[in-house]
Amino acid sequence: VQQWLGHLGGVRRLSPKTLEAYGRDVGGFMSFLQEHLGETPDCVALSSLRLADLRAWLARL
Questions:
Q1: 3-state SS record for 5-52
Q2: Neighbours of 60 (CB within 10 A)
Q3: Which of 37, 36, 39, 30 lies closest to 5, judged by CA?
Q4: Count of domains in the chain?
């Protein structure tokens, strides 16, 4: 996530407030996934998410 935010700030030149919001939202989603899946999400876990997983996250917002 930090590399992605670094790219957005350096290459795409997004504003600090945008980066802060993206970091907060993605961090919250990753925290939810860790609890929901019972493990730290990796690329394999992210690529195998189902609609039900996203709905569970939205229900928590």
A1: HHHHHHCCCCCHHHHHHHHHHHHHHHHHHHHHHCCCCCHHHHHCCCHH
A2: 10
A3: 30
A4: 1
What is the Rg, in whole angstroms, of the alpha carbon atoms belonging to the chain?
13
What's residue 57's pLDDT?
Answer: 97
Per the CB < 8 A criterion, the answer to whether 1 and 30 are in contact is: yes
Q: Is the pTM of this model over 0.90?
A: no
What are 40's two structure tokens? 């730290």
Q: With left for phi above 0 and alpha for psi between -120 and 50, is residue 13 left, alpha or beta?
A: left
The model's pLDDT over 6-60, given as tens digits with 9 standing for 90+, comes to 999 999 999 999 999 999 999 999 999 999 999 999 999 999 999 999 999 999 9
Domain of residue 36: give its range.
2-60
DSSP assignment letter at 61: -
